[in-house]
Fold this protein.
Amino acid sequence: MRLAIDSVDETGELKEEQLELVTNVLTKAAEMESVEMDSEVSITFVNDETIQEINREYRDKDKPTDVISFALNEQGEDEMEIVGGEGPNLLGDIIISVPRITEQANRYEHSFERELAFLAVHGFLHLLGYDHIDENEEKVMFARQEEILTAYGLTR
């Protein structure tokens, strides 16, 4: 199983080890979720202003958020299904606010790295179809996040 991860830190604040952590924890998540061979995901780290613009434009919420995911395999209501394409399985894009990582790590009293991994896995699971619109979905999604982070060795 090979997951290609294209990561871009637009803030320039993340260390190489932190970007490597994201790659490793998403690889573990892909393995645990039996993601098909040769899948790709893009992850971009931004500031609050950028994620607020994205949140406003795509979700009609004019405030910064911690993570936003855009699944490329989701078929919208008026979209045609693409069948039999060659090339990698493009899962989608994850956008994470670096200032939110710091703020939430402090609020939940755990490390920056734990929050970074948590948000990356959270966004990744959204790309795979997990959601938390209702209480039952939330329980399933958050339990799976904890299973992945624990299997990787990142506990609270």
